[in-house]
Amino acid sequence: MTAAPTHRNRRSRRRPTAPYLAALTWLYLLWSLLPVIVAVRMSFNSGKSRSSFQPTSFRWYWGDPVASVWHDDSMHVVLGNTLRLAALCMLLATPLGVALAIGLHRWKGRLSNSANGLMLLPIVTPEIVFGVALFLVFSQLYTGVPDGITRQVIGHVTFTVSFVVVIIRGRLAAIGAQYEEAARDLGATRLQAIRLVLLPLLAPAIFASLMVVFATSVDDFVISSFLSTGASTETVPIRIYAAARAGSTPAVNALATIMLVLTLAAVALAALAIRAMARRTADSAASDLASLSV
User: Fold this and answer.
1) pLDDT tens digits for range 99-132
2) Nearest Cα to 168, choosing from 277, 284, 90, 268?
3) pLDDT tens track for 202-249
4) Which is higher by pLDDT, 92 or 2?
């Protein structure tokens, strides 16, 4: 009779697959990041080529007196439109998403599950379908809404508010109701408990929501394109798409690199906020366990 394999033997048999999985992961990451790295490298070309590497310079960032990002007024307008649209979207979508998340978290009824499902609909709907739907709604139904930046802001808020709800609801589930109930027991009104207790506990999640909304808004092409009315509402993704089809200088690559850096910074800040939120939740749970053990 052969002895049954022990847990250590089974673990040693599975271990050789780990290097292959790690290698496959790194190959995928390199393959997916390679086009981005090439596009960023082209932005540092000293010449006008966007198909071959040339000696590096900052010509297309600020060196060229006419066509660089720093000196081209049209790129200033495009960059300003993108940042203004993202800022307005952050200011509107985040408070609205926080309020919706708190309401949905406390809603206990037959229609609550349906409402939660509808809230996730913009996330799972293909963006091209969402953009066409918004275009038809504004052009056929809500014709009184001013076109241009107003419609773009409404479209971006409609699309990004679901991300805020998902992030805030996750934080609400981790917090629980005990802190707010303790504040109510101490004499605070429901509004005071939300303002003085719940919102400070939600601060990391709110900051993460702001960063996610910013990153989503500045990178959006479909909704911005469908609701754009011309050069006055052109955003960076729209300019990059038009320049890629028509042919342009590496200044477009430089503009895209600037937006890539801003987006990565926003995502990094959001990740740090979520990590701090998880650490705070773990510390709170540990303190609660310690108090129970005493």
Assistant:
1) 999 888 887 767 777 777 777 788 888 888 888 9
2) 277
3) 888 898 899 889 989 988 889 999 998 887 888 888 888 887 776 678
4) 92
- Cα–Cα distances (Å) from 108 to 114, 169, 195, in that order, read 12, 14, 22
Q: Is 255:240 a contact under the CB 8 Å cutoff?
A: yes
Q: Does residue 52 fall inside a structural domain?
A: no
41 in any annotated domain: no
Which residue's entry shows tokens 């010449």?
47
Domain that holds residue 88: 77-285
Here the tokens at position 170 are 């996750």
- Residue 48 lies inside a defined structural domain of this protein: no
- Give mean pLDDT, residues 256-275: 83
Q: Percent of the chain scored above 90 by pLDDT?
A: 14
Joined tokens for residue 118: 């509808």
Give residue 1's pLDDT. Answer: 47
Cβ burial, residue 60 (10 Å; 0-12/13-18/19+): buried
The number of domains in the chain is: 1
d(CA 199, CA 175): 11
Give the residue from 74, 51, 35 showing the smallest Cα distance to 242. Answer: 74
Which tens digit of pLDDT belongs to each residue from 148-157?
889 999 999 9
* Structure letter (DSSP) for residue 232: G
Helices (H) and strands (E) in the chain, counts: 13, 0
In a domain, 69, yes or no: no
Query: What CATH number did the domain enclosing 139 receive?
Result: 1.10.3720.10
Residue 239 CA to residue 225 CA, distance in Å, equals 10
Instruction: Of 114, 108, 237, 93, give the one whose Cα is nearest residue 168.
Output: 93
